[in-house]
Amino acid sequence: MACGLQPPLHAAFSSPPRALPSRSSFLLAAGTLPLLPRGPTVSRHRLSPPPPRALPDTAAAAAGLRDVLADAFLAYPPTWTSAAATNLAIFVAGSPLLLSGLSASGVAAAYVLGTLTWRAFGSRGYLLVAAYFVVCKPAPAGSNSTTNAAAAAPLHVTRLDFGVDPNPSCKDAATFPPEAFALPHLQSLFFVGCFKNPAAPTALLLPPPANLSSSGLQQLSIRANPSLSGTMPPQLASLRSLQVLTVSQNGLIRGEIPRGIGGLRSLVHLDLSYNSLSGPVPAQISELTGLVGLDLSYNSLSGPIPSRIGQLRQLQKLDLSSNNLTGAVPATVANLTSLTFLALSSNGLTGRFPPGISGLKNLQYLIMDNNPMDVPLPPELGGLARLQELRLAGSGYSGPIPAAFGQLASLTTLSLENNNLTGAIPAGLTRLRRMYHLNLSNNGLGGAVPFDGAFLRRLGRNLDLSGNPGLCLDDRDVVRDVGVGVGACRGGGGGDGSLARDSVSSATGGVLTAYTVIFGRSRLLGPACVVFISSMLFFL
Questions:
Q1: Beta carbons within 8 Å of 272's beta carbon, 6+ residues apart
Q2: What range does the domain containing 534 cover?
Q3: What is the pTM of this model?
Q4: Is residue 20 domain-resident?
């Protein structure tokens, strides 16, 4: 703390102080008799007072010390040497507090954490981490002060967050700190949006497996770090206490998923999405029998979906979309009866759905767009009573829309665009009162649209029937009010479902064709016959 210094004493005076007359001079001036006999007269010379001594310039010294400390604390970028030296100075200054509240191992862990934090994140990060080392002395009920002192228990570092406000932001030159895994009581570690400098990529490195075997880490999140590079560390398999593992949105993380990941038997959520991972989906994932969420989307994984994935009976979310997976959906997927979210879109999957897929009674989201399935739509999907979103666009489905889809009472979104569907739209879809998004565009559907005006107006722009030349609407008023990409039927209701505009175009085309043929052969007929036939065609 900087202290204010008093100015030198002589600074308050504009000239040296004057000598005051002695008490005896006052008595003599008053004409009083001296109390003692007068002695010989001694000549006295008035001596000028000595000049005041200059005090040391303590203000300048304090300012210099302050600058030195500021350079030590705020040096950028910090080095390992400066971080270790500064941390040591702080520990020496705070040793009474540390020794009263921490064990020897706790002091050592605090020093390691403080040094690596200062090196990676500077003074702001250090101050936040230092706040974790507050000594807590709980007072058990009915105990006295002596007992309290004996029962004093220090708080341990159990969670560290870096990268996103209000947590400390990472310096541009920060590197991934494997030393953080040495903290003995750490349970949660987060690096979110921390390593973002493209000019200074840093590698994802973990300590050797022997140093991780005793780790109590339960949650590790390394997310949204565009300059974090390297492969998925196989040492992750040594973090046996992990329950949540998220290594996501790190575009430079490549390589295969470690086979040893099946050893993380405590894992509940595994998210490795939005990286550059390649290779197959390891069958060892099926050993994570307590897994509830599995997200491997937006990578470059290849090969088939392992059939052993059906062993994950607790799985509620499975997202393998946007990879290069091939083959059929394994029949064992029907064993995932707890599944609520299934996303397999944008892969190379082919063939039919598993026959037992209707047994997924808890499924609410089925997203399988953009796969070359090239099969008819399975009627079994109509048995998924809790289904809210069904997305099967751009997958080469053919044949009619199953009437069983009208039984999906919970459905809010149905996307079947860009397929080869034919036939009429099932009238049962009009009973889906929760529907708010319906896209049947770019197919070969035909006939009259079965939706009434209330249904069409409720969906509004969330209804797209365009790209189906054979579709038409009976209600001409609705055609004018709602743009769904479909014209009015000929005759305004109930007829054969042909479009009035197409009928007019076809009739006109037929007349012109007939006229051309007849006129072209007019040399075979008499002039009167040609005139008569032309007149009849004109009045058609």
A1: 232, 245, 247, 248, 257, 295, 296, 299
A2: 504-538
A3: 0.69
A4: no
